[in-house]
Amino acid sequence: MKKKVIIDCDVGVDDALALILAFHSPELEVKAITGVNGNVPLDLVFINIQKVLSLIRPGQRPLIARGADRPLKGKPVYAHSFHGADGLGGAKIDRGEGGGWGQIFPGPAHELITGIARQHPGELTLMAIGPLTNIALGLQKDPEGMRKLKEVVIMGGAVRTKGNITPRAEFNIFVDPLAAQMVFEAGLPITLAPLDVTHQVFLNPQLLEERVRPINNSISRFVIDSLGYDLARHRFRQGREKFHLHDPLTVGVVINPALVEKEKIAIQVETQEGECWGKIIEISGDQKVEVCFKVDSPKFLELFLSRLED
Ligand code: BDR
Ligand code: CA
To answer: What global pTM score does this model have?
Structure first.
């Protein structure tokens, strides 16, 4: 039986790779994709969801919905410097003729999430690979509907390691710490993939040249372009030597939970403004979440690379 999933995302280069992995995985049935403000403004996120769908051309068109265009509190923080002005590293996607590859849901993202959860009680996995604003809105507006979810698998946080947007905080949690705190204290069955584990999986020049480039299909060309890979210099955009697969790993954890080792711990998010804003803090408490700390990186990379093929 395929796992029914919804992906809440802020596309974003690694979000795009996560969508490709999800749609190319026979283990999953992607019912919907919802967009949230994050790496780029919501309007661009929604355009990018549709662009990536026209690259993937899924057999079954998922529902797509727009979500929050700002965090619960404070101003948006974008990551254009990392994901490019358009959020997809400037990679060209031919959107082709005819209608779109997603069915547009007229309401907000959180209504689509709880609506599908209610249709399939105890069966739906929600993957959240952007800031947690839409999930928090779902909890505010329809907590009963959110309790129909089977599980929530989240990319976010730096638990026992340093952050990536500040020394203490990871991007998704930093953008909306209030939403994250609301989600972690809600008592939902949560699995968290923080930087502690996502920093263990990355593409490097060797993998790009030996494994991705020879595939030579529209997907592999998109990977090379969106990562800004320079064949002459053997470097990614901004001269980077690695490209971390944060969001794809989160999808990998849903496809095969045995890829990771977890610890069940209680956490909270620092929501006081200051240098710790958005930091994850381990606490003693009953509201525990499953946190992934180790991954079988070769096995995950094999899964990811094999699914770039048609
Ligand atoms: C997370 O932040 C975003 O930039 C990525 O898409 C990923 O979800 C990593 O910190
Ligand atoms: Ca993301």
So the answer is: 0.98
